[in-house]
Design goal:
This protein has six helices and two strands. It has 137 residues and is mostly helical. The radius of gyration is 18 Å and the shape is globular.
Length: 137
């Protein structure tokens, strides 16, 4: 939400706007301290640039059509996990050494989510160019 907000604040002449985190906090209803933590990670990942001074804040470091959602999510160290087991542990899904019956289902779901997030850019989000959800009848 914060990255889309930042991208939406463009100057209209191709330059990227500098936006304060407090403005994003108010518009999006996100805690300022949480945004400060996130934007530190986004800056270290090279997705945003910080600007100091009285009119300081953050701007995107590159065009929003080149920033995919999976890049943002990985920059802030969020793992998309559909199941509880990990390759790093000897304990599988069931808490023992065997996998649960739906292990491959959750793995396929993670792969699907990763593929979806890597296909959507920040520009897609602000232009509302997203696949329409299926409506249940």
């Amino acid at each position: 939400m914060a990255m889309a907000d930042l991208a939406r604040q463009g100057t209209g002449d191709g330059r990227r706007a500098v936006v304060s985190l407090s403005d994003i906090s108010v518009r999006q209803g996100i805690s300022l301290s949480f945004l400060e933590q996130l934007f530190g990670k986004l800056r270290r990942a090279g997705l945003v640039t910080s600007h100091r001074g009285t009119s300081g804040g953050y701007s995107l470091s590159r065009a929003p059509q080149t920033i995919t959602l999976d890049t943002v999510i990985h920059a802030v160290n969020v793992d998309i996990r559909a199941y509880g087991c990990t390759p790093e542990t000897n304990i599988a899904c069931t808490g023992r050494t065997d996998r649960c019956l739906t292990h491959n289902l959750w793995g396929a779901l993670e792969t699907h989510i990763e593929g979806f997030l890597s296909s959507i850019t920040i520009q897609d989000v602000i232009d509302e160019r997203l696949p329409a959800p299926e409506v249940a009848e």
